[in-house]
Amino acid sequence: MPVWLGTDRDYFGGLMTSSPGLVRDISLVIAIAMPINAFAGACGFQPTFKQADEGGNQTVQVFQGDPVPALGNIRPLLFITSLKVNTDGTRISYHQDDVTGRRCATDPGAKPCAINNIRNAYRDHTQPVSDFEAVRDAGYPSPRTWEVLSPSIIEKDAKTGKPCVSPDGYLVSMTADVAVAGGFNRQGDCDQSKWIDALTVPAFVVPGQSRFLSLGVAKRSIVIALSKSSTKRVVPGIVGDVGPSKELGEASVAMNRKLSGLPETDLPKHRRDAVDRFQAGPTAMLIFPGAGAVLARPITGQRVEEGGNGALAKFGGADKLYGCIKDEVDPSF
Fold first, then answer.
1. Domain count, the chain
2. In this structure, are 78 and 115 located in the same domain?
3. Which pTM was predicted?
4. Could you tell me the CA-to-CA distances from 159 to 89, 141, 190, 194 in Å, in that order?
């Protein structure tokens, strides 16, 4: 399109005195055609840093855009990655009797079933499932239980020092932030609802000890996730958790579900189902850093949607964002 407009300008200069009618026709064509690429180059996205992913075996290019006056001149960050499913904060993430999250895969009628493997709640996820089974069968003795489980992933009962376990056998799964004011002061009460629920809140996990944090990204920073232009699904979200420093691309069940076009009421049936049906493909992630773009509690799906849509509107809207991605980052997106 830019080349075509430039050529018209060349012809326009030679036609002004010889064919005014044709000049007017050409001008009309230009005026009609311009909106197709009206947002080209409008965001100023430039490569800023590369973020390690997949344990450091890959890197993802992160871009930074021009200041957005309507958002206090913050400079948004953008990258494209393939998302993985994060289940932390859900009531069905880890079950003490379905340690691998496979029970419902082999027996669809079985209950209750987990959607994650207990090893993902370990201090060291490379250790075997049998380590958890041993402490479970021994009644969760201390300190051995917390040498196996991570106390930043599984909540510790303030009264007993043991893992918080619901009446139906699910371990209470934590997130790096809380959904309600004063939630951190309640840590140890074993109430799952104070954590950010990955089943209902579209959220993204940022790497800890990364440039994201030094550039102003914080817990509850507003993010916008976009599927490729062939489906054009736009999902407002927040930064809901902080993960390993060399991993990028984990998002909540709710965010993956929306990006995949699944019904709002759909839940993963087991761990394999969470990957096979929910895991979204290549996704563009726009993050608004700075204190002014942090969503206040309480954190609910509705408040996240409203806050995200408001920030996106001030940025210039989804069409502008898609145009900038195509023009400045990835023409095939």
1. 3
2. no
3. 0.86
4. 21, 14, 10, 18
